[in-house]
Write a structure and sequence with these properties.
The longest helix has 29 residues. By secondary structure, the chain is mainly α. It has one domain. The protein is globular. It has 15 helices and no strands.
Length: 365
């Protein structure tokens, strides 16, 4: 396992280094007046290609190695099939990062297509939720469980894309999530799923070398789609394969990006806007503007970079409020459900507090 992490990390570092050096001319095409822009200068958004390279390289190493030295039971065909299922969604994200011409509808269609491929080739389905009536409905109509799985796998990449706003934010949340999943998978004796996400964790760490704190490259849509797709597939497979894992474990583990997405959709629809409209009212953007104190430096780009880097730690700690109890309570559905409700309440309460300028002074730094 350690070999896969180190290998994916090294490949990702090398790939991202090349992209940082060679892809700056693409960054000049990005609009300077976009609502989600909180940096100065031309920064490439192709970090997802580096994350993909590191992850895929580790999968291929595990699949093509002789005599299964990692004891994970991957075949060459299995490794190739995983990559093939992932590519439609990730390529759509990378093309969008390069051209800004792929519509949200097309990207959603391609992520759902990748999700359908995973459900078909892996036999994935959400078979239990520990909610009586819903479980009865799934038992009566098995197709319903497959549709739920495809929707979850196809939707999570867009949730990760939504929280990808500041240096180190989405990358660190993804890294923590991968480590949490690998811990539970190893507790269940599932080295295959653990290797799947640990390869992604190593590649993500390699990307973060350049993304935080200097912000030399961003993950872009491609990176968010790699994170969301792999994490969602692993979570669905983990619950399906191991009855001792509560279906509420992935819900609590991923409640931050999911809550951000659902609340954003509600907020925009309540204001008569399309859910796909970009704005400056996401949770992390409010923290940047209202909690992070201005930094007195000599030039504008250094000031903005310093404030940008001070934003992510707020969300790392906030995300830990779901990751830590999820890892500790991964067998207990009732406790996980209660923690999920508490997190949603905390999210809404914190959002309203910031909007109303009622944040205590000790939280600002």
């Amino acid at each position: 396992m350690i070999t896969l992490i180190i290998f994916s990390f090294c490949i990702a570092v090398l790939a991202v280094f090349v992209l940082v050096r060679r892809a700056r001319h693409h960054a000049r095409l990005y609009g300077t007046d976009m609502p989600q822009r909180f940096h100065v200068g031309d920064v490439p958004r192709l970090g997802g290609a580096g994350i993909l390279a590191g992850t895929v390289a580790a999968w291929l190493l595990a699949g093509f190695a002789t005599e299964d030295p990692f004891y994970i039971g991957w075949s060459r065909l299995g490794a190739v099939v995983m990559i093939g299922c992932l590519l439609p969604a990730v390529i759509a994200g990378i093309v969008e990062d390069l051209t800004q011409s792929v519509s949200a509808r097309v990207r959603l269609l391609l992520t759902l297509s990748s999700a359908a491929l995973f459900c078909w080739t892996w036999g994935l389905s959400i078979q239990r939720t520990d909610i009586g009536l819903l479980d009865q409905a799934i038992a009566a109509w098995p197709l319903l469980g497959i549709l739920f799985a495809a929707f979850a796998i196809g939707g999570l990449p867009h949730a990760f894309n939504l929280i990808d706003g500041y240096n180190g934010l989405a990358g660190t949340v993804s890294l923590l999530t991968c480590l949490a999943i690998s811990h539970v998978a190893l507790q269940c004796g599932d080295r295959q799923l653990a290797a799947l996400v640990l390869s992604l964790a190593g590649a993500t760490a390699g990307f973060l070398v350049f993304n935080y704190p200097r912000g030399k490259i961003f993950a872009g849509d491609g990176g968010a789609y790699v994170w969301g797709m792999v994490i969602a597939v692993t979570c669905v497979a983990l619950v399906q394969r191991h009855p001792q894992v509560s279906p509420w474990f992935p819900i609590l583990l991923l409640v931050y990006p999911v809550c951000e997405t659902l609340f954003s959709i509600y907020r925009k629809m309540a204001r008569g806007q399309s859910p796909g409209t970009a704005d400056r009212l996401h949770f992390h953007q409010l923290i940047f503007r209202r909690l992070v104190r201005p930094v007195l430096l000599n030039d504008e780009d250094r000031q903005l970079l310093a404030r940008n880097n001070k934003t992510a730690p707020y969300l790392w700690m906030f995300s830990a409020l779901s990751v830590v109890p999820a890892v500790m309570l991964w067998r207990n559905s009732l406790a996980l459900a209660v923690c999920s409700l508490l997190f949603v309440s905390a999210y809404v309460g914190a959002y309203l507090t910031i909007v109303r300028f009622k944040v205590p002074g000790w939280l600002r730094f």
